[in-house]
Amino acid sequence: MKYYFLSDAHLGLRTVTDPSVHQQRFISWLDTAAADATAIFLLGDIFDFWFEFPRAVQSEYRAALEAIARTVKSGVEVHFFCGNHDQWTFGYLESHCGVTLHRKEFVTTLCGKTFFLHHGHGLGDTPAATRMLNALFESSASRWLFRHIVPPRAAWNFGYRWSEKNRLRHSEDDSAFRGENQEPQVLFAKSYSAAHPGTDYIVMGHRHIELNLMLASGTQLVLLGEFFSLFTYAVFDGNALYLETFQ
Ligand SMILES: [Mn+2]
Q: Does this model's pTM top 0.85?
C-alpha cells in the first residue's frame, strides 16, 4: 500500500530545454508510481499554465492528460490539487481524466495517519501584489471575460509569459531555505499543527525546495521540491513518509 506525492512539474515551462522530454519524464514517473500506488496526489502546479476554455484545452498537454486518464482507469485514485499556476480548471480534469479535484486543503487519513495536503500558496503572509493578482484571476467576472472574449492561444501565451516573468523575478531569493522563521509554509505548519493536534503529516509543494522537518508538535512537514530540475517526490509506505529523486 503506497501513496505518492508530486508537485510543481510546471509542464510547458518555457525555460526547459525540451518540453516534450520533460513531459515524457513526468509520464514515466506516473507509470512507475501507478505500478504499486493506492493513490497518487498531484499537489499543484503540475502545469506551468492551465486555463480551460469551453471548447479548447491546451494540446501540448495531451500526452500527460492521457497518462493521467490511463492511471485512473487502471484503478489508481489520482487527486489533483490546484496550484497558483493551474487553478483555472472548470470540470475538464474530472470529466476527461477522472481525477478528484481539490481547490483547497484536503485533510485525509491514510493507513491510520492524518495528512494535511495543500499546494502551499496563499498561506501566511502573501505579498499584496500576489493577493491582488490571485483575487483578479479568481473573480468569476474576469474568468468569464477571459473564457469568452480572449482567443485561447493568446490567453495561453499570455499565461506562459506571466509564469516565466514570475519565476525570473522570484528565482534568486527563493532558491535557498531561508530558515524556519522566514518560511511562511513552516510558520503555517507550526501554527496549524499546534491548533490541530494529531496531525501526523503536512505535505506541500509550491516552494520548489525539498524539506523534511519534524516539528515540536510531532508533525512531520514535507516540502516536495519540484519536478523540472530536481525531479523529487515523496512516498508514504504506510509506516514512513520520505523524499525520493526520480532517476
Ligand atoms: Mn506554486
A: yes
Amino acid (1-letter code) at residue 104: K
Q: How many domains does the chain have?
A: 1
121 C-alpha vs ligand 1 centroid, how far in Å?
A: 6
| Residue 206 located in a structural domain | no
- 132-183 pLDDT, tens digit each: 777 777 788 877 877 888 888 888 988 888 888 877 666 545 678 999 999 9
Ligand 1: centre distance to CA 208 (Å): 8
Tell me the C-alpha distance between 217 and 116, whole Å: 14
Answer yes or no: is 197 within a domain.
no
Three-state SS sequence of 124-136: CCCCHHHHHHHHH
pLDDT digits (tens, 9 = 90+) for 99-121: 999 999 999 999 999 999 999 99
- Cα(195) to centroid of ligand 1, in Å? 25
Domain boundaries, position 157: 2-103+125-177+222-245
Rounded distance between C-alpha atoms, residue 195 and residue 76, angstroms: 32
pLDDT in tens, 51-67: 988 888 889 999 999 99
* Helix/strand/coil for 233: strand
> Is residue 191 within 8 Å of 211, Cβ to Cβ?
no
CA gap 26, 17 in Å, rounded: 15
Is 231 among the domain residues? yes
DSSP strand pairing (2-6 vs 220-224) = unpaired
Residue 200 lies in a domain: no
Query: 84 is written with which cell numbers?
Result: 497558483
Q: In this structure, are residues 116 and 107 in contact, taking their beta carbons and an 8 Å threshold?
A: yes
